[in-house]
Amino acid sequence: MDGPDHLGEPVKITSAQPKDATDWAQMRNALWPGGGDKGTHADDINRLLADAGDTVNLIARDGTGHAVGFAEASLRRDYVNGCKTTPVAFLEGIYVAPEARGHGVARALVAAVEDWARASGVSELGSDAAPDNMASLKMHHALGFDETERVVFFRKLLGP
């Protein structure tokens, strides 16, 4: 799947490969700072690369080969808020480098996820975003997602 990049040249969307790990980890850290294993995301990336059946991991590169975004999606068989079927393709994470935002990179990534989802036999694509993440909410709406519900999660620590 290709789409326009911030330079006006095609963005190339490809399945993530081991050679993409460094770029992918840097973008994951920009999206989820300090996340993953000690902030490196290496274990997560290795697990995602090994789990090819129920996941798709995509890298977007501009016309010069620079990584400008990624998307990770999986098939979820548990309840996905607002969805009516199972399994559901779920957009676990999407990131576009700040300099490439607003130029169709997210649209190209999500279109590639949709293609994978259809090929996997599912009819719904779910996603989530923090209610205060206005950029993510705007992107989801612009890409045709419908807001289905807002939820607050709670926890209670249980003593011995």
Automatic annotation (TrEMBL):
GO terms for molecular function: aminoglycoside 6'-N-acetyltransferase activity. InterPro entries: Acyl_CoA_acyltransferase, Aminoglycoside_N6-AcTrfrase, Bact_Acetyltransf, GNAT_dom. Signal peptide: none annotated. The keyword Transferase applies. It catalyses: kanamycin B + acetyl-CoA = N(6')-acetylkanamycin B + CoA + H(+). One of its GO terms (biological process) is response to antibiotic. Its EC number is 2.3.1.82. Coiled coil: none annotated. Residues 11-160 form the N-acetyltransferase domain. Residues 1-20 are annotated as: Disordered. It comes from the Bacteria. Keywords: Acyltransferase, Antibiotic resistance, Transferase. PROSITE patterns: GNAT. Homodimer. Catalyzes the transfer of an acetyl group from acetyl-CoA to the 6'-amino group of aminoglycoside molecules conferring resistance to antibiotics containing the purpurosamine ring. This is Aminoglycoside N(6')-acetyltransferase type 1. The lineage of its organism: Bacteria, Pseudomonadati, Pseudomonadota, Alphaproteobacteria, Hyphomicrobiales.
